[in-house]
Records
---
Amino acid sequence: MSTGAAIQVQGVGKSFYLYTRPKDRLKEFFTRRFGRFYGREFKALQDITFSLQKGDSVGIIGRNGSGKSTLLQIIAGTLQPTVGTVAVHGRLAALLELGSGFKPEFSGRDNIYMNAALLGLSKRDTDERFEDIAAFADIGEFIDQPVKTYSSGMLVRVAFAVQVAVEPDILIIDEALSVGDIFFQQKCMKRMRELQENGTTLLFVSHDMSSVRDLCNIVVYLKQSKMVYYGEAIQATHLYFRENNKKSNIHVENKSSNSGQVSTKIKDALASEACWTRNVEIHDNESRLATIIGLAVLDEDQHPITSVRMTGVIIFRIFFRTHVSGKFNIIVSLQNRFGALVTAVGSCSQDAPPPDLDAHSDHIFELRTKAMFEAGEYTFSAGIGPHGGSPNMPSSNGDRTPWVGPFSIIWPYDKEWAPFLGLFGPPVEIKYVANVEELLSC
């Protein structure tokens, strides 16, 4: 890996002015010199300072509106900072907004040559690389059709293929790959790793924390336009999950004489930073058999967690209030980041029947399992219903929480052999049987 600074960001801030009415912008144009302002200042970035070395792979994370895209645009040079300076050393290629830099009326071929020229390639250089670019984009005969006829997936294929073909010193990717199909995403990830190995500095914005951890050794975490963390990827993503999973303590309003107060013990338990709570009204009535108040995720030592190592133990703790007496089943469902159901398991599948529970009382169910799923981000939901009802869904008079999370399953693929590859790891037993020759000679 080569040494030296690739990007230096010093005290960068960016402000925009927001106007209530369009005509206020015009009025301010004529009155600004007299100190008359009609807009209000919005600070998209405040005092951002960091330095990246050549060959660094840097993820930029944060919630929507935190300033990620604004920062990338300033580094790419398409936006000027209000204050501060940015120094970029080396050829920079950026895939920012989908379709940016493309002429809709031009064909894909023409846009490739135009963008390659903007990135510093001569026509001869582009001629030599065109076949590789077209093969990577893999859109067939559409390469000679106007870009305005492309789907978003085809557009990002061509755009990414051009950016990586120039073998830039610095590559910036801002969420654009999320519109591609999974096979193209995998091809892009492989290509970015090849560029990393060759010393390219990577700036990568994504809400997919598993991709950030997999690609990046450094993470910049932006929150409300400020940089709140700069350092190791795993620590940054853990901080991101922990801060974004925090909820206010449960609040229960008593609006009728038969409303129930949640016990102090449950309120204390729900104060955990890794516990999701519901601001619900608890009414002891017959329309709902029970109400789920909160969910906690714990490790084997009963510590709150927002992530777990693959194959580790996860305990889902479900706090609920009963409105009638009887037996209840609980169920926990997990979704992956694409919204596909990964699994749904619950007490109905266990041999031991649930106990009889008193009405108008608070209870806790726990579901313990192993994280036998691929590394990545998941959301989960809990449901409760009467014993003997549907094993997969609570009945209409049961209760189900919204999907909450994200919860992360992690594994250091670059340092250790994973216990399994693919989507999940089934129970398996492996044993050595015998030497074939010895077995046959018996």
Note: DSSP finds ten helices and 19 strands in the chain.
---
Amino acid sequence: MWSNWSGGQQARPRATDRPLDEAGVVAAVRRAAARGQRIRPVGAGRSWSPLAVTDEVQLDCSALTGVVAVADGRVRARAGATLAAVLAELDTRGLTLDAVPAALDVTVAGAVTTGTHGSGAGTGSLSAAVTGVRLVDGTATVRSIEGPALDGARCGLGVLGVLTEVDLAVVPAVTLAAREELVPLAEVLACGVLDAHRWVELVVFGDRQVLVRRADPVTGGDVTAPARGDTVRAAAVGSAQALARAVPRLAPALQRSTGRWSGSVTGPAHRVLAGGRAVREERTEWALPRPALEPVLRELDAAAAALGVGPRPPLLVRVGPAETGWLHPAHGRATAWVGLRVPAEHGLFRLVSSVLGAAGGRPHWAARHDWAATDVEVAYPRLPDFRRLRARLDPDRRFAGPVLDALLGP
């Protein structure tokens, strides 16, 4: 039986293929076609969503690892390579990726397929960095995707084909000085902090206090970042949340305690910005139009109080520019990402989905959500283009499944 990282998604596939190279992927797709079976690729299993769940054939891409080449301002990595491995290789060459997400043990294919992002008003997601992909389509044909169709493959949800190699734009490595401090939410919103830094994210607590984390390039200086980034802080926040659930009256004090430390670290982006996920809980995240952020924060607090769900878990707020990917949640607009840890069965999950969806939000494909095909049709103006590309690359819906049928239509 397969399970994702959090344990929230499980599957009993009829068969599991683990190809060692692209030829193995071609053979796996041909076998599935000969048996009339559908096939779903899976990477590190770090998504909270059910995109990889199948009861037919699961394609484990974990052996498709390694960096193929670094040249002409881009890196070509095999689909199953982790971001940690790619960034480590780039670091030896004085290079890096512009977007550095919080988790680096995700695979390249999984990250770009679901729109995984970092946080910076001028920094696109990993999908935006894609300059070309190589994939095995539903007819077991190897294709290189570039040009206009690339915007379909940038965030393709694994329905266009099995990615085998991905080209990503690289940038010169920089040393970042990161700092965090606890300040009132009103002050944060008034001073424009979300647009003033290379990288910035907010942890918004229920008492309207905000842990502001920001980072900017510096020259010189000693590296002071720990090898595991903010893993220790993540564990502390998770422990506070767990105790707050057990003893609700302690929640406000515990939330404040997670942000009392104020200091700075300096080092390369992949050490300063990335950290472990210490709490194995379910997560939902939504991409909002930037202007909707402030009113949504107010509405969420009011709605949570009216629902009587107790202290609201901290909200993680990140930002990013408009994206061109046809199915990317930030498609066509500057975006504020709002996420929190909450079980899908909890009343707060339904409340958050309702409030953020009504504000024009689109759910992150790697997080938990309750959207159906009718929601996707309204939210994504380039969906017809994506469907035409899908029909060309996977005419027999070899990479479909119940979850994808519900999201994209049969």
Note: Residues 227-261 have pLDDT under 50 and may be disordered.
